[in-house]
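FAQ

Q: What does a record look like?
A: Structure on top, sequence underneath. For example:
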């Protein structure tokens, strides 16, 4: 990688909250992707290429945001695989806790892109584990959207109001 990109990534990573618009949303998406990818010990580079392409589409060709989503996902997966203070159960608990605080993030759980990542899995056991995770995420999304409807509507109203005043 180019030195400039590495330096930029280092600074973005260290000061993500200050430099990245809606960093919490991006990190939540990264955690969702990482949960599915990390369930496969033999995850492939194609998963990260897919995430970058997905992010380019989602973030209107914003290459910096796309790279940041891909790299943040990769960091979380590495942390899990290296047994560096994070495991899948802890990540699941973190995702659930984030949804309690910011229920609108449930709308960020998009199953179709996650299914495409699961389709890249060649190990049958990992595939079934990932499919169970997708079922869990769908249930979590549905329950959050149903039980927190009014809070989500209120929070989104505040966000739109904040965006208009900028």
């Amino acid at each position: 990688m180019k030195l400039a990109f590495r330096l930029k990534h280092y600074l973005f990573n260290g000061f993500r909250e200050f430099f990245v618009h809606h960093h919490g949303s991006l990190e939540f998406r990264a955690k969702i992707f990482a949960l599915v990818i990390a369930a496969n010990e033999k995850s492939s580079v194609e998963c990260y290429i897919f995430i970058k392409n997905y992010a380019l589409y989602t973030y209107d060709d914003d290459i910096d945001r796309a790279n940041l989503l891909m790299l943040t996902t990769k960091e979380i997966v590495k942390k899990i695989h290296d047994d560096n203070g994070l495991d899948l159960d802890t990540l699941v608990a973190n995702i659930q806790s984030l949804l309690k605080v910011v229920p609108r993030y449930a709308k960020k759980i998009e199953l179709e892109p996650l299914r495409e990542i699961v389709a890249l899995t060649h190990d049958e056991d990992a595939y079934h584990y990932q499919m169970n995770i997708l079922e869990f995420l769908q249930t979590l999304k549905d329950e959050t959207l149903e039980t927190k409807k009014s809070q989500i509507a209120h929070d989104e109203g505040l966000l739109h109001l904040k965006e208009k005043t900028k």
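Q: Is there anything notable about this one?
A: The mean pLDDT is 87.
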